Amino acid sequence: MQGKVLAVWFSALALMLTTALTAQERLNNATVSTRWATITSEKLPRFSLKRTLQEDRLKPGNRFAAPLSVDLGLDNAGAWESTSEGNKVWRMKVQSKDALGLMLLFDDFFIPPGAILNVYHADGQLMDTYNGLDNQSNGKFLVGLVRGETAQLEYIEPRDNIGQGRLHLFRVDHAYHRENLRAANFAVSGKLSNEIELGFGASDPCNVNIACADSAEFAKEKRAVCRIVVVVKEGTGVCTGNLINNTKQDGRPLLLTAFHCQDGFNPLYDLWRFDFNYESKTCDNPGKEPQWQTILGAKLLAGRQMSDFLLLELSNSIPQSFKAYFLGWDRQPAAPTQAAFIHHPQGDIKKISLDTDPLIVNPNAITWNNKVITPANFHLRMGIDKGSFKVGSSGSALLNEKKRVVGQLHGGLDTCVNPIGYFGRLNVSWDGAESAEGRLKDWLDSADTQADTLDGIENPVKGGGTVSGSIKTEKGTGIANVRVQLLGTNGATITTLTDELGNFSIDNVPLSETYEIGAGKADLYENGLSTLDMIRVQKHILNLEALATPFQMIAADVNNSGTISTLDLIQMRKVILNLETKFSSPVWMFVPAEKNFQDPKNPFKGLASGIYTIPGLTNKVMNFNFTGIKFGDINGSVDYTY
Length: 642
What we know:
Helix 5 (531-541) runs antiparallel to helix 7 (566-576). With 642 residues, the protein is mainly beta.
């Protein structure tokens, strides 16, 4: 007898469209106009809601966006203009009528040193800024979700690198399904009300933060768990993944998750993003979103639909700065006497769910709502005593009483009252298929020890060099939560964060490679901005009292013109009065701490972009320090811990 139809957590149902933070830098002396009214929207293929809904009826799911094929790039779309400084600016609008939002997919994406790509929502608000650190070795890239039916792209290329950039858009995904967007808790522009974004703060209040007392004994195991941003040809989703140990215990970056995160879709593994240490430091939900550390890209090793496991290998070794842990496992058939799983429900910060009672091997087949039928005895059934789960929890490792992996979350009843989870069994996944592509033993027991169990370990990967440094204000105050990115010539990107003192360290960096390093920080434009700053700028303009340092002068140029004028005062005033939400400049700028200005009275002269090259890492330890400049904050009142 088959079990009742249960909810299955498609990764494409609840789309996780938040991009990783990138350094938002500005060009030297670039005066960038905002004449969008002169740019005509590019024509896209007509979106057929009727046909799309018919497809959804034939293949039930929570798809919210359908693809439109396009051929749009720097050479055949948009409009170019030149600035007085010799820089080039390209702008393009894409519009799909009545779209709730747009996804932008590039098959050729290369931003040269000093150039940036700004992407704006339909209302003109800046969604994100991209630069050379976002280049991937395969040239592909994904941007979204851009709110509304129009996306505006602005590519700024410095005069020293004219013609070197490549941008080609091959697909735009039209977001159409209001109810599925609501079900996914994804906020969109338009007429929806009370929407909650997928991600930070989105999960139900019955979910328990990993820092709560009940989870104290999982302090090591939690460091193995990450959020996965899943990218497929049909959309983007979110799941949970787990670093897992192998019998060579060599720190090979193997990651276990759920097969159904990509089942029925066409995965683009080289664009999957793995977010580590995305969690609260306290039991209470924090007032602001925590930062995380990211690795981009993976390759498929093995997977099996019947036991719902997927094993990936990440594109990069796990840096020591991640403080990662590799989970142990138990392939024996016995069900756990108690269990726990750590997960990212709805892409939210890390949560934990617990069961203090014995689990059972589910004796019945299960028919999932994507029409997949999993056989009897292939899943463990867990009645959850504390916590729950949601979309995004899929793939979370089930830990037995010895904190070893015995399965991964497939689905179940995700209510806050009497939730029930079903987990594909590691015992079945171990050797239940004829080839290595369908089983775990070839990968987790690569030393062929025939072990039944294996304990977890701290990250054993060592060697290579260390790129470390500090990011401080001109007065020496450390700046916390700055995202530092290191991009190698092999395309690998390593991301870390500064600590409370502004220090960062990236370990296990291969020697002899050339790297680019940059920094960026998410912040509010109004942080540190007040009328006192306006008074200082006004006195400077009137030659009553000059700004004291080059850094103050750069901070005063909020309209990004390379000069200080009344136009800067106008922008500052509008942000203070909440008439505008942003400046023309980015929120922060980071320059080398050893920067010597060619002319301290004109610091804009020779001011390079914020991406810097390390031409061949030869030293085992290399220090690279930045000075941070918060635009609009002249008197240093910004909250540096934000």
